[in-house]
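cron nightly-structures :: item 1 of 1
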Amino acid sequence: MNAPVRRSYGVVAAAAILGTAAWGALLLSLDGAAPLLVHVGAWVAWPILAALAALGFWRWHDRIARPRKDRMTGLPSSGALVERLDIAIAQAKRSQRLVAVLLVDLDRLHAVNESLGRRTGDAVIQLAAARLSHTVRETDAVIRLDGDTFALIAPDTETAESVGGLARRVLESLRQPYGTAGGEVHTTASIGIALFPSDATESEFLVERARRALRTAKAVGRDNYRYHATADDAAAHRRAKLEMDLRAALARDELLMHYQPQVNLVTGEVTGVEALMRWPKPPDGWVSPEEFIRVAEQCSLILPLGSFALRTAAAQARAWTDAGLTGVRVAVNLSVAQFRNQDLVAEVREALADAGMTGDCLEVELTESVLMEDTARITETLERLRDMGVKVAIDDFGTGYSSLSYLQQLPADRLKIDRSLINGVCNGGADAAVVRAVIELARSLEMEVVAEGVETAQVAEFLRRLGCTEAQGYFYARPVPAADLPKALDDARTAQAAVPPPRTSRGPQPVATPAQPHRLAAGDD
């Protein structure tokens, strides 16, 4: 209800009360000389005015002082939506903050009503209302609109991203099973979001924008949320959709690990494999790892993804060992979040124990960005991992901002040169100079060097002459599923055998490498 209507009810009530009081004073002032008709009219009119005063006050109190409640859930009903939203917008104009409207609709509740009965459906609505009330902040409002739709008003909001966090919490809460007298019910929800002032500045239009976003959320598959679509937030919508799909894929165990061989450039033997996460997403095909890993890092999914990678790698090493493929060292990428937010050593130890493997089957890779964290804590963690037999590699070296002092402190075994430096290494110039410097640096620190992204025999031969220890890339084998690894190992060995042998005349000689701690073998190969 808008401000003029609210004021009109107040004016009517006040006028009726004042008029009644004035009329009562008039009755008391009448004397016996007044005509009988005046006496009768006055006494008849007084109760009418009193009734009007009571009616006006009741209407004002019902609409303003006592917002209507929804009988089923106890929440404010739809009549309170615009009233509450008007107040939130007025406050936001003074504080320069955002106001978010989230329309939450339970997915396919009609199917619950048809299969389990209306009472069960009503019980789900009541439980959903209670969950919503516990999920939002104290300053937020939860309103039942109609049927299975609720509205959330989030005033005093700082950023659109924080609204996305609220939407994710709501979806997770409503995704949990509902225990009812009719049995356990599973359902999900869809959410449409509109923001003041970017989407609209008036309450009615803001609600309409949220309804449009809700329709979009349902159209793209439900169990997700959508912001009101504008040309400027297309990327935000894609990110939100990708996040929802990634959560679902993780829950349904749809993510895969593929494995790419690493080859010793001197001996030609395969020394290990790198575990690389892949996400098949029909009908769109494969989602780029760079894209979904970036989304995972932004929405705190990187921790469960990291745990999945560790456990899968350890279990796969066990499976290969049982199948006769011995000595498989699997390299797993770790994120900054894993070092920052959990006991990484305990998780690695548990993953190895569950697989029945020792630490020498595993290698952990960390990027240079990890080096910018608490160096003392990172160093302690890596030393504990090495004490378990786990090797440590610094990945994508040459693309970050790490310094020699960091490298000297870290207990690392290997440096991996980023593929962006490898592509142009045979052309001389800056790339070749950087790669040569990295190899010399690793040699001085007694580290092995692995080149990523090797795609030709010419590059492999040039790297070997520079003294690079190992290499991986499409020249040897693409990342493959675990079942296809034996063939990928044979392909890698064959590719390395085609590289021209080391020169015996004057010039750079192959660098002797440390004794191989691991060697892949399939049966008697």
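cron nightly-structures :: done
The longest helix spans residues 36-65.
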